[in-house]
Write a structure and sequence with these properties.
With 65 residues, the protein is mostly helical. It contains 4 helices and no strands. The protein has one domain.
Length: 65
């Protein structure tokens, strides 16, 4: 880019964009837009519980539940 930042324009007609796959970055704020305020609060509580349990593996967490 002209400002020195390395970036790819997915809308360009370069052969790179038509032959290779790429992934866009999503932010937490964008993802929270898909949840109701109640769901957001429950997710925060679930995350806090997960951390309080010492961040167990998925199998250990399932066994605890």
């Amino acid at each position: 880019m002209s400002n020195g930042l390395y970036a790819m324009n997915p809308l360009s007609n370069d052969s790179y964009t038509t032959t290779n796959k790429f992934q866009f970055v999503e932010t937490v704020e964008e993802n929270l837009g898909f949840l109701t305020p109640r769901q957001q609060e429950r997710a925060k509580k679930a995350r806090a519980l997960y951390r309080a349990l010492g961040t167990p593996s998925l199998d250990d967490l399932k066994a605890m539940i």
